[in-house]
Fold this sequence. Notes:
The protein has 639 residues and is an alpha+beta fold. Helices cover 26% and strands 30% of the residues. It has an 8-stranded antiparallel sheet, with helices on both faces. Helix 4 (79-87) packs antiparallel against helix 5 (97-104), helix 5 crosses helix 6 and helix 12 (390-403) packs antiparallel against helix 13. The relative contact order is 0.08.
Amino acid sequence: MLIANRGEIACRIIATAHRLGMRAIALHTPADRGALFTRLADDVVETPSYLDAPAIVAAAKAAGAECLHPGYGFLSENADFAEYCALEGVAFVGPPPEAMRAMGLKSSAKAVMARAGVAVLPGYHGDNQTAKFLKERAYQVGYPVLIKAIAGGGGRGIRRVDAHVEFDAAFESAQREAEAAFGDPRVLIEKLILNPRHIEVQVFGDSHGNVVHLYERDCSLQRRRQKLIEESPAPGVPEDTRAAMTQAAVAAAKAVGYVGAGTVEFIVDASKGLGRDSFFFLEMNTRLQVEHPVTEALVGVDLVEWQFRVAAGEELPKMQAELIPRGAAIEARVNAEDPETGFLPSPGLLRALKLDALDVRVDSGFAEGDSISPQYDSLVAKLIAHAETREAAIAKLDAALARAVVLGPKTNIAFLRGLLAAPEFVAGTHDTGFIDANLERLGAVPQPPDARAALAGVEAIYADLAPKAAPATSDNDPWSVADSFELLGPRRVPFEAEVDGKTERFVAVARGRGVEIAFRDGRPAPASEVAPTVLVVDDGVLVLNGGRQTHVRPIDPEAAGEVGAGASDGAVKAPMHGRLAALAVTEGQQVEAGERVAMLEAMKMEHALTAPRAGRVTLAGKTVGDIIEQGALILTVGE
Ligand code: ADP
Ligand code: ADP
Ligand code: MG
C-alpha cells in the first residue's frame, strides 16, 4: 500500500496498515525528508509534490504497491487521479471516479441532491462564470451571500459578500484562491445562513450495494470556516432531526452509487430551532475527513480498516443495526499558530513535544525534534477524548490540553481551552460565527506578558544559565556566601531580562539557602493550575504556562539598546516564509496606515499585510508568485 499523503494522516494510515499486516510505502517531498511518517513506513519514495499524479502513480507501480490511499486533501477528491490509478493497475482506496465526479464538486453535488429531494440553499451553481452574471444572481438571491470555490475544501476559496459594491473584489479574490489551491477557479453563489450550525454525517458504502451512516459530527466551532473542535453527538439536535439528516445522507450516497468513506455536510439554520426543516445540504466530501476519529471513538470502529476492506471488495464489516453510538466524543485540532497575532502560522523546530500519557487519543505527524514546515498546513496534532457524557468528554479533553507540551512553535492550545470553557459552547448554543465574533473575549488578541511565565523563566535562567556563564565562587556568587550575619537584611540583586522581546525589571532576593525572584515593582505573580514547563534553549528559555508560550532571555548589559522598539520605519516584511499572493499597491502609491498592501500565502492560507503608517509606497522588487523568506522586505511606506 502506498500513501499519497503526509503528516498525521499518513502516520494514522500506516498504523492500521501494519495492524492488518500490510506493507506501507510512504511518498514524500523534499521538504518532508525524514518526517515521522517516513520513519514509520516500511519503504519511502521521494516525489516532487503530493499533487504530481504521474510521478505518484509511477512510484506506486515501481514499488509494487497494490493499492494507494490518498488520505485527505491533495489528490484525495480528484476523480481523474482515481481513474488514472485504476488504469495503471493500482487500486485507489476511495469511491469510484463517477461518484467522485458527481459529488466532488459542490455545484454538481447540489444538483444531485436537489434531484434526490434533499433541501439545498438558494443560489446559483451553474456553468456561467462571468462576473456580471454571477453578480446579478447574487443580487437576486439577496445579500449577504457566499461565493464558494466549487472545488473547494478546508474553508478556502470562500468569500462573504454583504453588499453589491463588494461583489467584484470578493469574486476576484475567491477565484484567485481557488485557482491557487485547487487548480480550478470556478465558483458558485449561495445564500448565507446567519445562525449556522455545521453538522455532517459520516457514511460508508461497499461494492455490494450496502450503505450505512455512522451518525453525525458537529463541527460548528470554526475559525474563518475552518474546523477547530468537532464532536458527536451534535448537542441539542432533536432525535427526529438527527434521523432525517442521517437518512438524507444515506439517500445521497445511494443516489450516486457511493462506495467507501464519505461525509455529507449540512448547514443547519439554528434560528429555525434545529427542526426537521432547518438543515440544508452543503457538500459531500468523498474521502476520509480530518475529524474521522470522533466517529471512530463514538462507534468503536477503524474507518481506515473499513476503507481497505471495501477497496478489496469485501462487504461492510458492520451493518446499520450493529453500529451503536456510545457516550460522547470530541476532537481538538492543535495548530502551530499564534492566536494573539491574528493566528499567524508559527512553523519551526519542535523543541519539546510531549503528547503521550494524556488519557486521550493523539494523532500527530511529529515527534520531538521534528520541524513543522512552512510549506504545509499548521496541524500539529489532533486530541480526541471519549467519555460517557458530553461534559465528561469536554473535561477529559481540557485536562489533556492542559498537560500537553508543545514548545518552539506557538500553538492554539490556550485558545482551544478557552473555547471548551466558553458558556455558549458548554450550553451548545454556539454557531459557526461564534469564534470570529468573540475573538477578544476568547483571548485571541495581543495579551500582556504572562507574569507567571516570566518569573518561572528568570528563575530558570538564574538556576541554569547564570552559574554556567560565571562559575560560582565565594567571590562572585552572592548566594553561596555562607555568612551567618543577616544584619543588613536579605541580599537583593536587581536585574533585567527580556520577556517576549520587552525588557522587564526583576529582583533576586536571598532567602535562607535559596533565591526568590520577584518583579521589581512588587507586582504579585499569579498562580497557575499546572506548574509551567520550562525549556532551556540557545537564546534563553521557553516557558509554557496554560498552553501559552513565553520566551525569556537574559539581558546582556553590553548589548543593551540593540533591540530598540521605536516608531515604525515603514518597512513591510514577510512575517513568515511564504509566497507573495498579491500586491495591492503600486510604486509611489499613497496609502493610509492599516491599509492592505499585499497578501502572503503561507501554510495554505492567505495573510493580509498592512501599511504600518501612512505614506508613499516604495516596492522592493518582489513580484507576485515569488517565494519570500521570513523577514524579507516586500515594500516600504515612506513618510
Ligand atoms: P472540510 O473540507 O469540510 O473543511 P476537513 O476539515 O476534513 O474538511 O479538511 C479538509 C482539507 O482541508 C484537508 O486537506 C486539510 O488539510 C485542509 N485543511 C483543514 N484545515 C486547514 C487549515 N487550517 N489550513 C489549511 N488547510 C486546512
Ligand atoms: P469547504 O469545502 O471549504 O469545507 P463548505 O461549503 O463545507 O466548504 O463550507 C465551509 C464552512 O463555511 C461551513 O462549515 C460553514 O461554517 C460555512 N458555510 C458554508 N456555507 C454557508 C452558508 N451558506 N451560510 C453560512 N455559513 C456557511
Ligand atoms: Mg466543508
